[in-house]
Amino acid sequence: MQRIVAGEFKGRRLLALPRGQEGLRPSSSRVRGAIFDRLQSEVVGARVLDLFAGSGALAIEALSRGAAFATLVERAPALQRHLRRQLETLDLGQRSELVARDALSWLRAPAQRFDLVFLDPPYAQTELYGQSLAALVEGGWLAPEAVVVVERGQRAGIGSWPAGLVEELERRHGDCVLHFLRASAAD
Q1: DSSP string, the chain
Q2: pLDDT per residue over 34-45, tens digit each?
Q3: Which CATH architecture best describes the domain 31-183?
Q4: Does the structure show a pLDDT above 60 at 23?
C-alpha cells in the first residue's frame, strides 16, 4: 500500500490499484521522496502535468506539497476509474483534472502551460519518451524554466533530449533512473 510522503496528506494511504494493469509500476515512496527533495520549493504554486498518470501518486504528492493544480492524463479505463476515486477520496476535485485520453493524442490539442511535468510511460515503450518530450517542447506546453522529471528503467535507452530541454541532474534508485530537465527561458 502506497502512502503520501509529505505535505498536506502526509501518511495518507493511496487506494489499492486495480489488478491486471500491464506495464504499471507506481513510483515507490523512496523515488517520490527523491524527486520532491530535489524539487522542494519549485512545487509550491506550480501547475503540474502527470502525463502517464497510472496510480496518480506523483501528481497527488505534488498537490500534497503545495502545487496549485494538477492535470493527470491516463488512457486505461480501469486506471481512470481508480484515479477519479482517489482524487475524490482526497477531495482534490477543485485542484485537479483527469484527462481520459492517450497522452500523445492529447498533446496534439491546443497547449496549456505547465511548470512541472512528470513523464513516466511504461518502461518497455521507449519510443514514448522521445515522442512525448518533443511534443511538450514543440507544442508549447512548457512554461519558461519548467521542470520535466523523466523516470525510466536502467535498461531503457531513450536517446538525446530535444532542443529546448537541458538535463540538470540524473539520479539512480535501484532499477529506476530519474532525469531532471529544465526548459529554456526563451520562448
Answers
A1: --B--SSTTTTPBPPPPPS--TT--PPPHHHHHHHHHHHGGGSTT-EEEETT-TT-HHHHHHHHTT-SEEEEE---HHHHHHHHHHHHHTT-GGGEEEE-S-HHHHTTSPP--EEEEEE---TT-THHHHHHHHHHHHTT-EEEEEEEEEEEETT----PPPTTEEEEEEEEETTEEEEEEEE-S--
A2: 899 999 889 999
A3: 3-Layer(aba) Sandwich (3.40)
A4: no
Instruction: For residue range 97-126, list pLDDT tens digits in order.
Output: 999 999 999 999 988 999 999 998 887 788
Q: Are 14 and 4 a contacting pair, CB within 8 Å?
A: yes
Nearest to 62 by CA among 80, 76, 50, 75: 50
Question: What integer best gives the mean pLDDT of the chain?
Answer: 89
- Domains in the chain: boundaries: 31-183
